[in-house]
Amino acid sequence: MNQYILSIDQSTSCTKALLFDRNGDLAGRFDLPHRQIINEKGWVEHDPEEIWTSLIGAVRGVLDNNGIDGGAVIGVGLSNQRETAVVWEKNSGKLLYNAVVWQCGRGTEICGRIDAQGKAGLVKQSTGINLSPFFSAAKIAWVLENIPDARQVQEKGTLCCSTMDSWLIYKMTRGESIKTDYSNASRSQLMNISSLKWDEDICALFEIDPATLPEICDSNGLYGYTDFDGILPKAVPIRAVMGDSHGALYGQGCLRPGMIKTTYGTGSSVMMNVGEKPVHSEKLVTSLAWGIDGKVEYVLEGNLNYTGAVIKWLVDDLGLIPSSKDAEKLASEARQIEGLYLVPAFSGLGAPYWDDNARAIICGLDRTCGKAEIVRAAEECIAYQINDILRLMKSEAGLDIQVLRVDGGPTRDSFLMQFQADIAGTKVFVPNVEELSGMGAAYAAGLSLGIYNPNEIFIRSAGTEYTPSMDEQKRNALYDGWLQAVGKTLLR
């Protein structure tokens, strides 16, 4: 009987269950979406119990749809949306509030208070992350400040505060394990990236008790055992946990300094492996890539709040196109209008601008601008934002970028990928396998269990390569126009 690694990829919009066979090939996939709970203030939440129900449904679906007996599953990997914060009571598993999603900026006031104390530099120095409401710390602090039950449970000593991975591990192990890995911990804005421990001084700034936070473990550590509420005939080990972008970096085989990938999703993460020593940056984030077998590696990262979400906005809110799949065709048919830019600062701008108060604009409209041209500007703004970070990374790390490896649903859009190669002036490689985040977690789990060969598993390189075709003068002119458009969104 074949043996499989079951990988869970819990993302912002859905939960995917993935099966990888002994060769590391994808043998099955099943997705289930969950609600995006958005109020009139633009705050974004998820129901963690709904996500858990979706996870169980996805596991059952991937086994049933592919005719695979649960007894063939020998191990589990988990990749997850990062920074999204969950607060619950340890003994009962009772949620004290919905999960506050990474996109949500409700912690702005809390970060402002810390900044007013002159502590923003300390936060950056210790955690590698610019003080920002988009990381977990301010979200957890908001729950503790605004939900009376949370403070009461904290005083009793049974409060758990974590990212989504720890909540799912808790549920998968029936409450026996409350752990996180280095990659997720480094994105919380609560871990010291030098000591590799929860930073008591930073926790105090956010009024979070370090005792409420999960145990930090190697990304390929043992996180407990699960049978997914009886779906599997016996419990199997959870042998890998990674934040989704870190999982994609690992799955892309970016194991050496200077290798870089971009995950395109609702938002996007640009991540460069910088090796065993951190590279500190004023405008980029320094995080842990992972911890493997007791050794950690670092990354430089830039995060964007609205990339794929811009196209979703065109579909759901403006009704310009029936689905995201229609964007590629319209964009390729559109006229190029000089000076037309869309800057998607719907909830501020992340790296490299870090302006929570910036607001979205469309500029450079003329009378000939129609639906197709707006769609094209939306597609192009994704590539411009990625390019902002690529340029800064090359400068900060002192490393040239030979190939940009990419993953995520939007990489199926050939217009976007070609424009990305053109505006960045570098080759873009799209692997044939789409599920890179889950694949990275699966490979880490399979390597830990000894079913994959580390010298063979990362050499799968089939895919599509996009080569730059735009001349340098035009590239520079377009990018200068983008920078001018961004300048109009920023506070003066």
Report what the structure shows.
With 492 residues, the protein is α+β, with helices and mostly antiparallel strands. It has a domain at 4-242: ATPase, nucleotide binding domain (Nucleotidyltransferase, domain 5, 2-Layer Sandwich), CATH 3.30.420. The protein is 34% helix and 24% strand. It contains 15 helices and 24 strands. The protein has helices at residues 48-65, 108-116, 120-127, 136-146, 148-156, 164-172, 182-186, 200-205, 244-251, 308-316, 327-333, 371-397, 414-424, 436-448, 472-487, and strands at 4-10, 14-20, 26-33, 37-38, 44-46, 73-80, 85-89, 99-100, 159-163, 179-181, 191-192, 197-198, 215-217, 225-226, 236-243, 260-264, 268-275, 285-292, 295-304, 341-343, 361-363, 403-407, 427-431, 463-466. It has a seven-stranded mixed β-sheet, with helices on both faces. Strands 3-2-1-6-15-14 form a six-stranded mixed β-sheet, with helices on both faces. Strand 18 (285-292) and strand 19 form a beta hairpin. Helix 9 packs across helix 14, helix 11 (327-333) crosses helix 12 and helix 12 (371-397) packs across helix 13 (414-424). The radius of gyration is 22 Å and the shape is globular. The mean pLDDT is 93.
What brief labels describe this structure?
six-stranded mixed β-sheet; globular; 15 helices; alpha+beta; 492 residues; Nucleotidyltransferase, domain 5; single chain; 24% strand
Residue stretches low in confidence (pLDDT < 50, at least 5 long) are none
State mean pLDDT (0 to 100 scale). 93
Query: Total number of β-strand segments?
Result: 24
Radius of gyration: 22 Å
CATH class category label of the domain at 4-242? Alpha Beta
The chain-level structural class is: alpha+beta
Q: How far apart are the first and last residues' alpha carbons, in Å?
A: 65 Å
> Could you give a short account of the major beta sheet?
7 strands, mixed
Helix content range = 25-40%
Strand order of the largest sheet: 18-19-17-16-22-23-24
The name of the CATH topology of the domain at 4-242 is Nucleotidyltransferase, domain 5
CATH homologous superfamily (4th level) name of the domain at 4-242: ATPase, nucleotide binding domain
Number of helices: 15
Looking at the structure, what is the overall shape? globular
Our estimate of the beta-strand percent is 15-25%
The CATH architecture of the domain at 4-242 can be named as 2-Layer Sandwich
